[in-house]
Design a protein that fits this description.
The complex is a heterodimer. Chain A is α+β, with helices and mostly antiparallel strands. Chain A has four helices and seven strands; from the N terminus they run βαβααβββββα. Helix content of chain A is 28%, strand content 21%. Chain B is α+β, with helices and mostly antiparallel strands. Classes of the chains: A alpha+beta, B alpha+beta.
Chain lengths: 158, 143
C-alpha cells in the first residue's frame, strides 16, 4: 500500500545525519534534487475524470473559442494522457482543470489559493509551466521541461 | 505565448482608454475555460486570455461600448452556439499594472473591440497571462 506522503526535502528524512549518496541518486531520478515524491500504488480516483476531459479535447473544432483557437493536436493529447496518469500516481497532486491553449495544446491548471500552476503540453512533449506563489515570490517559476516529475514537485507543493 | 512586439508608433493613443474601464473576453463552455479559485471565485484560465495563432495581439471588448450579452451575441451571429458561454471582465488598470497596455481597435461588428498589447517594458509571457487570469472574474453566463 502506498504511503500518502507529501513531498519533503530529502534532508527531512535524515535530520542531523548526512544523506546517503544512494538516496540522493534515487530521489534525483524520481524528481528534482533534494525532493522526494511519494507514489501511490495506483492512480488517484480523479484520473478517470482527467483522462476523459483530455480525450474530449479531440472533439473541439478549430475556432472553438470564437477568437481563432486551433483544434487540439492529437499528439499533445497523447503526451498529456501519459503525463497526467503519472501525476495522478503522485500523492498530493489533485485534479487539474483540463483545458486547451489557443495553439491547440493541452492545458492543465491548478490553483489552491496560496499557489497556482499552469502547464501546457506541446505535441513534442515539451511542457511549458508557470508556478506562482502568492506568499513567497522567491518560489515563482516559469520555464519548460519534458520531465513530469518537475510538475509533480510543483503540483504537490504545500 | 512569449513574444509580441511593442506597438508601432502610429498606434492609437492608449490614453483614450481610461484605466477605470473594463474589458471583456468570451469564454466557451468546452473545454473548461473557467476555474474556481479559492478566495477569488470563478475566473478565466490563463490559456483563455492570450493571443491566438491568427492574432498579433489578443482581442477584447470594452464594456463601455459592448455589454457582456452583446459580446456573446456577436459570436452567435458568427455561427457559434454560445449556450452556457461566459464572459470574464478585466480592469484596464490591472492590465497596465502588469506592464501591458490596452488600445482601441474598433471594428464594424464591435465598436468596443480592443487589444492587449505589449510595451517596451513588458512583452507577453506565460506568467503575465497566469497573473491576469487571477484578476479576470466571470461576470456573465449565457443561459
Amino acid at each position: 500500500m502506498a504511503h500518502e506522503l507529501y513531498q519533503l526535502p530529502v534532508e527531512a528524512f535524515y535530520q542531523g545525519t548526512p544523506v546517503p549518496a544512494s538516496v540522493e541518486q534515487d530521489t534525483a531520478a524520481l524528481s528534482g534534487p533534494g525532493v522526494v515524491l511519494a507514489l501511490r500504488a495506483r492512480p488517484a480516483d480523479w484520473w478517470v475524470d482527467a483522462r476523459n476531459a483530455i480525450r474530449d479535447l479531440l472533439t473541439l473544432p478549430s475556432n472553438w473559442d470564437s477568437y481563432g483557437a486551433s483544434s487540439v493536436a492529437p499528439d499533445s493529447v497523447g503526451e498529456a494522457l501519459g503525463g497526467v496518469e503519472y501525476l495522478s500516481c503522485v500523492a498530493g497532486v489533485t485534479l487539474p482543470t483540463v483545458t486547451a491553449t489557443g495553439e491547440g495544446h493541452v492545458g492543465l491548471c491548478w490553483d489552491v489559493g496560496r499557489w497556482s500552476l499552469d502547464a501546457s503540453i506541446a505535441p513534442s512533449g515539451l511542457i511549458r509551466y508557470v508556478f506562482l506563489d502568492e506568499r513567497d515570490a522567491t518560489r515563482n517559476q516559469e520555464g519548460h521541461t519534458r520531465d513530469y516529475s518537475k510538475l509533480a514537485e510543483l503540483a504537490s507543493s504545500w | 505565448m512569449t513574444g509580441g512586439s511593442p506597438e508601432p508608433d502610429d498606434a492609437p493613443a492608449s490614453a483614450t482608454i481610461s484605466s477605470d474601464e473594463v474589458i471583456l473576453k468570451r469564454l466557451p463552455t468546452r473545454p473548461h475555460t473557467v476555474k474556481e479559485r479559492p478566495g477569488v471565485g470563478l475566473t478565466a484560465t490563463s490559456y483563455a486570455l492570450g493571443p491566438r495563432p491568427s492574432e498579433r495581439f489578443p482581442s477584447y471588448s470594452r464594456q463601455r461600448f459592448t455589454s457582456p450579452a452583446q459580446l456573446l451575441e456577436l459570436a452567435s451571429a458568427a455561427g457559434q452556439d454560445v449556450s452556457g458561454w461566459s464572459v470574464a471582465a478585466i480592469r484596464v488598470a490591472n492590465v497596465r499594472q502588469l506592464g501591458l497596455d490596452v488600445v482601441s481597435r474598433p471594428t464594424d461588428e464591435d465598436p468596443g473591440h480592443c487589444e492587449i498589447v505589449p510595451t517596451e517594458q513588458q512583452l507577453f509571457t506565460d506568467a503575465i497571462w497566469s497573473r491576469l487570469a487571477k484578476q479576470a472574474p466571470v461576470v456573465f453566463t449565457q443561459r
